[in-house]
Amino acid sequence: MRFSKTFIKTLREAPKDETAKNGALLTRAGYIHKEMAGVYDFLPLGLKVIENIKAIIRDELNKLGCEEVLMSALQNPELWEKTGRFSDSEVDVWFKTELSAGGILGLAPTHEEPLTNMLRTYISSYKDLPLYIYQFQTKFRNELRAKSGILRGREFLMKDLYSFHTSEEDLDKFYSEVEKAYGRIFDRLGIGDATFETFASGGIFSKYSHEFQTLLPVGEDTIYYNGDKSVVLNKEVLNDEVLADLKVSRDELSETTGAEVGNIFKLKFKYSEPLELKYIDDNNTQKTVYMGCYGIGVSRLMGVIAEKFADEKGLAWPESVAPFKYYLVGIGEEGIKKAEEFYEDHSEETLFDDRDLRPGEKFADSELIGIPYRVVISSKTLENGSAEVTNRKTGETKIVKLEELEK
Amino acid sequence: MRFSKTFIKTLREAPKDETAKNGALLTRAGYIHKEMAGVYDFLPLGLKVIENIKAIIRDELNKLGCEEVLMSALQNPELWEKTGRFSDSEVDVWFKTELSAGGILGLAPTHEEPLTNMLRTYISSYKDLPLYIYQFQTKFRNELRAKSGILRGREFLMKDLYSFHTSEEDLDKFYSEVEKAYGRIFDRLGIGDATFETFASGGIFSKYSHEFQTLLPVGEDTIYYNGDKSVVLNKEVLNDEVLADLKVSRDELSETTGAEVGNIFKLKFKYSEPLELKYIDDNNTQKTVYMGCYGIGVSRLMGVIAEKFADEKGLAWPESVAPFKYYLVGIGEEGIKKAEEFYEDHSEETLFDDRDLRPGEKFADSELIGIPYRVVISSKTLENGSAEVTNRKTGETKIVKLEELEK
Q1: How high is the pLDDT of residue A206?
Q2: Whole-angstrom distance, CA of residue A279 vs CA of residue A2
Q3: pLDDT of residue A208
Q4: What ipTM, to 2 d.p.?
Q5: With respect to CATH, is domain B11-309 assigned 3.30.930.10?
Q6: How far is B333 from chain A (nearest CA, A)?
Q7: For A177, which DSSP code?
Q8: How many helices (H) and strands (E) does chain A have?
Q9: Which of A187, A299, B309, B341 could form a disulfide with A157 if both were Cys (CB 3.0 to 4.6 A apart)?
Q10: Probe site for chain A from B17, B33, B135, B302 (most A CB atoms < 10 A)
C-alpha cells in the first residue's frame, strides 16, 4: 500500500471521549473510527488486522474438521422463547426492533438457538454426528456501558463454534481438542505466553467452563493464579469448594486482571433439550444431542493485542497480525528510486511511505502504526546494496542486504 | 470437501413458505437456510459462492485504486437527521432499536451518511482527493414484503463504494470507470450477456442514474429496451422527455423484467453539503466535495445467478462462482480408490461424493447442487486412465485423461 494513495492519516489526538488506550491508539494510527461508544468502523489497516486474526483462527478450526457458515443477525423470538432467552430479564443485552410487517425481532447477541434449530433439518441419525460448525459473525449487545474501546463492543466481531455429539465422552474429547487449538491460536497471535486457560462458572449443566484470559492491566476480569500459573481461576468461582477441587489454597493465589479473549463451554442438553435436537442411535432409540460451544472475540483480540504490545511511541504488532510486514522509507533521490523498486517486488507486504514529508515524520508514523520492520533505503545504505532495518519491538537496527528481505 | 463429512444434506422439498425458485433450489441444494421471510443463513456451499462473488468484485475495484473498509451497522441518528433521512417518511425501511443507555439507534440500510461524516476527519485539502472507498457489509431493510428468496432481503450483503472528488469532471471520469468495471464484474460472474446498463431516475441532483439490470422472469423491475438493446430504461423514467433525450420512440421499445444487481449514482453535493464535507482548493478557497455512490447486491447476485442458470434438474453455476469445480464420484472398488487419489490432489476444487449411496443418487445430487463438472471414475474409465466428465450446463460428456483435469 502506498501511503500517498490511502485516505488514512495519522492523527495527533484521539477523540476526547476515547478514554481506552486501545481505542485512542488505534484511532490515532488510522485503524478504526468511532461511531459511538462501543461501535467502531474498521479502516483499511484495521480490516487487514481483523482478516489476519480470522485467517489464523480459520486455519486451526478447519484442521479440526470444523465447517464455516454465516448465520443471520435478525432473530425470530419464537426460537429464543423455547429456551427462555428472549426475555430481557434472562438476557439483558438484547437489541430488539419492530418488523414493519408485524412482530418483534431481536439482533443476535449469540447463536445457540438458531444453530441448534437449523440442525434439526440436518441431524437425524447417529451417523450424522459429530459435527462442528462455526462462523465469524457480527454480534450485537446492548451494553449499558462501553468505555473500553474495542475491548467491549455494542457491535463486535466474534468467532463462535458449536459442536454436536452422541455422547459426553465424545463432547469431552472434542472439547479438549478445542482447548489445544485455542492454545495454538493464541500462540500464533503472539499472546500465548500471556494467555491462560481459566476456571470459570459452568452454569447449570457443567461444574466449570473455561475462559482464556490474557493478562492485561485494563482487563475487566479479576483472576487469581498460583505460583507457576498452573491454576488460574476467575474471581466468580473463588470459593472453598472450587479451591478444594483445584487442590490450591487461597494463600497460594495472587490477584491480577485479565481480558477474556475466548471461552469454551460444555452445554450438554442446555439448548438441544428445549429445542428438541434429537437423533436415532444404533439401537433405533431417540436421544438428545450433546452440545458444546466455543467463542473467540475477534475484534476484542485486536484491541487486546494492540494494548498489550503498545509502548509510549505507539502500536507494535506481532508479525502474524500486522497489516504489513515492512514500513518502507526512501531517503534522497537514489534511496527513493530504490525504494520504488523494492515496493514493486514487495507490494503485498509493504506499507510504502511515499508521502512528501521529512524522514523524521515518517519514522514517527511508522512507530505509531506499529509495523514490525521499518526499512530505510538511502544512498548511504545503498553503498553495499543494503537497507537499514529497525525492529519495532526491540528498537534494534541492522543493515540487511536488500535481497535478503523476504516476502 | 468430502460429502460424508459435511453437515449438509440435499432436501427433497423446500419449506412450504418458500415460493421463490432461487430460495427453494438453494435451500434444497444445501446453500442457504431460511430463518424467516427475507432472512437467510449461508451454509458452507453458499458461503463459498458469496466469497467467490466478493473476490471478483474486490479484484476489479482494487484495480481502480479503491480501498476496503468495514462500517458499523448501528447508526447514530444525529448524522442522518442532518440529511433528513432518519425520518421514516423519508426512508421507510429503517429498523430502529433502543439503546439501554438511552436514545434510539438505527440499523444502516445504506452508508452515505456515516462515510461522508467519517471523511471529514481525513479530507482537508484538494491534495487528499480523489478517494474511492468501499465495503462488503450487511444491510438491514425493514421491507414490508420479502417473498423473493435472497433477491430481496431484510438482511443482505451489499458492496457499496463511495467516491469523493474536487470536480464534476473528475466524478464523471471515475463514474465511467466504474461503469466499465461493473461490465467486467458481470462478465466474470457469467451474466454479462444478460445484464444491461439501464437508465433510471437520478433523484434531485442528477438527471439520471444507472442501474445494472439482469434479465430475469421474476425480476421485480419492469424495463424497456430497443431492438439491439443499446437503449435500456427503467419504467420509472419512461416519459416523453426521457425518450427524446435517449433518441428512441416508444414504438421501438419492448417490455421485459429485470433484477437490479447494481446501481451507480452521481450524488454530487447531496450528502457532502448537509454533512459539510469540504476541502481547501489550490486557491485556498473552501469548497464542497463531489460524491458518487456505486452499489452491487452481493447476496442478491447469488440468487440471480442461481435462478438464471437453473433448469429442471437443479442449479448450474458458472465456474467463476461455483463452490467447487468438480463433483467427484468413484464407482466400484477400483474407481473409488482412484477417486480417493484424485481427491488428494484436487481437494480444494473438488466436492467428493464419498457417501455410501448408489451412483444414481449421487448423480441426481450433483445436478441439484450444480457443480460445473461431474467427474466419474470407474474401472471402465480407468482402462485408459481416464474419467467421464459431464458438463452440468450442456449435459455433454467426454472421456478425459485424469492428468488433464486441471486444478
Answers
A1: 75
A2: 56
A3: 86
A4: 0.97
A5: yes
A6: 22
A7: H
A8: 10, 21
A9: A299
A10: B33
Confidence at residue B204, expressed as pLDDT on a 0 to 100 scale: 65
B136-159 per-position pLDDT tens digit: 999 999 999 999 999 999 999 999
Q: How far apart are CA A71 and CA A74, in angstroms?
A: 9
Distance separating alpha carbons of residues A52 and B346, to the nearest angstrom: 26
pLDDT at residue number A406: 85
Q: Is pLDDT of B269 > 90?
A: yes
CATH number for B326-404 (one of 3.40.50.720, 3.30.70.940, 3.40.50.800, 3.90.1140.10): it is 3.40.50.800
Side-chain half-sphere CA neighbours of B158 within 13 A: 27
Can you name the residues that pair with A239 across neighbouring β-strands?
Answer: none
Distance from CA of B396 to the nearest CA of A (A): 33
Per-residue pLDDT at B406: 85
Q: Does A70 touch chain B (CB under 8 A)?
A: yes
Report yes or no: A12 at the B interface, CB cutoff 8 Å: no
Whether residue B33 has pLDDT greater than 80: yes
The hierarchical CATH code for the domain A8-309 is: 3.30.930.10
Residue with cell 487449538: A181
Closest-CA residue to B171 (of B298, B288, B59, B297): B288
Picking from A7, A9, A72, the nearest residue to B39 by CB comes out as A72
- Mean pLDDT within B187-197: 97
Give the start-to-end residue ranges of the domains of chain B. Answer: 11-309, 326-404
* Secondary structure class of A395 (helix, strand, coil): coil
Phi, psi for residue A297 in degrees, rounded to 5: -85, 105
Q: How many helices (H) and strands (E) does chain B have?
A: 10, 21
Quickly list DSSP for B69-104. Answer: -B--SEE-HHHHHHTTTTSTTTSTT-EEEE-TTSSE
Cell of A143: 451494553
The pLDDT confidence band at residue B205, using thresholds 50, 70 and 90, is: low
% pLDDT > 90, chain A: 96
Q: How far apart are the first and last CA of chain A?
A: 14
Name B373's bridge partners: B326, B391
Contact of B204 with chain A, judged by CB distance below 8 Å, is answered with no
A33 interfacial to chain B (CB closer than 8 Å) = yes
For B166-285, list the strands marked E by DSSP. Answer: 195-201, 208-215, 221-225, 232-234, 254-268, 278-280
CB atoms within 10 A of CB A97: 20
pLDDT digit string, tens, across residues A383-405: 999 999 999 999 999 999 999 99
Q: At A144, is the secondary structure helix, strand, or coil?
A: coil
Q: Which of B117, B160, B105 is nearest to B274 (CA)?
A: B117
Backbone angles phi, psi at A67, to 5 degrees: -115, 140
Q: Which residues contact B167 (CB under 8 A, 6 or more apart)?
A: B290
Q: What is the pLDDT of residues A361-383, one digit of tens each?
A: 999 999 999 999 999 999 999 99
How far is A304 from A260, CA to CA, in rounded Å?
9
Tell me what the pLDDT averaged over chain A comes to: 96
User: CA distances (Å), B236 to each of A144, B217, B232, B240, B347, in order?
Assistant: 46, 18, 12, 12, 49
Q: Rounded CA gap, B292 and B172, in Å?
A: 9
Asked if the model's pLDDT at residue A204 lies above 80, the reply is no
What is d(CA B395, CA B397) in angstroms, rounded to the nearest whole number?
Answer: 6
Q: Do residues A113 and A71 touch, judged by C-beta distance below 8 A?
A: no
